[in-house]
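Appendix B. Worked example

We walk through a single record from start to finish. Start with the input: the chain for SdpI/YhfL family / PF07853 family multi-domain protein, Lachnoanaerobaculum saburreum F0468, length 295.
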Amino acid sequence: MKNKKWYVVIILISFSGSIYLLTNGNGGISLYKLFILPMIISVFSIVLGIISGRLAEKDRLPHKLVLPIAMSVPVLFAISQYGKYILNQSNENYTQKIIHVLVALIIIAVGNYLPKTKPSRFVGLKFFWLLDKPVLWFKVHRLAGYLWILSGVLMLSLGVSNKWFWIVSYVMLLYVIPLIYSIVLLKKEKEKKMKSSKIKHLIISSILCLATVGIFLVFGKNLPDVVPVHWDSSGNVNGTIAKNYLTYGAPFAYLLINFIAFAKFQGSEKATWKYYLVPLSVIAISFLVIFLALR
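Next comes the structure step. The output line below is what the pipeline stores for this chain.
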C-alpha cells in the first residue's frame, strides 16, 4: 500500500474492540487479548499489505485486491472481538450493538470512497459551490475521507453515545470541519484571483504611463529643446523643462506616482477605474503640454 494512512487505519481497527472494552469495563479480559493480540494482528496485516503491494507491482496480483487483503484481517478480528466480548454483554441491547458496528463500518467504507468522487450533485458532500472547482472538490473530500474513517474508528472504539459531546464531535468530524475547510479554500482562491486581477491592472496602467514616451516622440518631435510647461496669469512663461527630461524622465516620475496611487486604491475592489486615474491623467497632460508649447 503506497498510502501510509491505511497503516494507521489498520492499527485503529485492530485496537477498536480493546479501546471499547477499556472505556466501558473490560470484564476481566486478559492483557494478552486486550493489547498483545491486537498488536500481532496489526503487524501481520501491515506486512500482508506490503507483500501484496510488492506482488501487485510485479503484476502477480491485481492492484485492486491489495487494500481488501490487508484490511480483511483487522476487520474480521474486530468483528470477532465484538461478537465474543461485546455483543454478548447484557448491559446493552444486542440489536443496538449490531447497528452501532454496522454504522461504524459503513462510515469507514464511505470515508474510503469520498476522495475518489468527482464533482456531482448526487454523490459526495453537498457543497454546491465546489461543483465547478474539481481541484477544491478533491481537497475537501480527501480531508473528509480521513475524518469519516476517524469517525468510524471512534464509533467502533467508543460506541455511539447520546451525550451531547459525542453528538457534536461526530457532526464536526463528518460535516462541519469539511464545510469550514471548503469555505476557507474558496476564499483563498478568490483572493488569489483578485490579486492576479490587481496585478493585471497595475501592469496595464504602468504601460500607459510609459506610453507617454511615445507620445512625446511622435507628437512632440517639433518641440524646442527647452519646453515651456507653466505660464503666469498674463500668459508669460515662468516654468520650463528640458525636452529630453520631459520625453524620457517624466514618464518614470509618472510611473512612481502610479505605484503610489495603486497602493492607495488596492482596497477599492469594485472601483477598478481608479487604477487608471493616473495613466489617463498623465496622457491628457502630455497632449496638453505639447499643444500649449507648439501653439
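Two observations about the output. Residues 164-210 form the longest helix (47 residues). DSSP finds nine helices and two strands in the chain.
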